[in-house]
Amino acid sequence: QVQLVESGGGLVQAGGSLRLSCAASGSVLRVNAMGWYRQAPGEQRELVAAVTEGGSANYANFVKGRFTAARDNNKNTIYLEMNNLKPEDTAVYYCNADAVSFLGRRSYWGEGTQVTVSS
């Protein structure tokens, strides 16, 4: 099995910054795409950013220019640098990984980390 452990969430004022991390561990043979999603209360989970194994990143329009996602493949870790945070960025942020283990290939989710931006 593969476990994803997120860290770095918290409370920040509008305009501030946070850095999220997510590390894949366990019976990891290979990690393909990794990404960050978020879910605000009463809303559907939505993609924030995704990074391929080769390091190419794609972003949702609402974070372009403010968030940066990057990977360290040696550590099976993805980071999300969030700058100029806005109250509407408040949500639980989830890490996702398309990973291969001895059980085969599947999509894994972390438990989520809360990000709260005060106005």
Short description:
Helix content is 0%, strand content 61%. The protein has 119 residues and is mainly β.
Structural write-up:
With 119 residues, the protein is mainly beta. It is 0% helix and 61% strand. It has no helices and eleven strands. The protein has strands at residues 2-7, 10-13, 18-26, 30-39, 46-51, 57-59, 67-72, 77-82, 91-101, 104-109, 113-118. The strands form two sheets. Strands 2, 4, 5, 6, 9, 10 and 11 form a seven-stranded mixed β-sheet that branches. Strands 1-3-8-7 form a four-stranded antiparallel β-sheet, with no helix packed on it. The protein is globular.
**Low-pLDDT stretches:** none
SSE series: EEEEEEEEEEE
Shape: globular
Q: Helix tally?
A: 0
Radius of gyration: 14 Å
Number of strands: 11
Measured by DSSP, the beta-strand proportion falls in over 45%
Name the average pLDDT: 96
The profile of the biggest β sheet is: 7 strands, mixed
What proportion of the residues is helical, as a percent range? Answer: under 10%
In whole angstroms, how far apart are the ends?
A: 40 Å
Instruction: State the oligomer.
Output: single chain
Output the structural class. Answer: mainly beta
How are the secondary structure elements laid out?
Layout: E1 2-7, E2 10-13, E3 18-26, E4 30-39, E5 46-51, E6 57-59, E7 67-72, E8 77-82, E9 91-101, E10 104-109, E11 113-118
Parallel strand pairs: 2-11
Antiparallel strand pairs: 1-3, 3-8, 4-5, 4-9, 5-6, 7-8, 9-10, 9-11
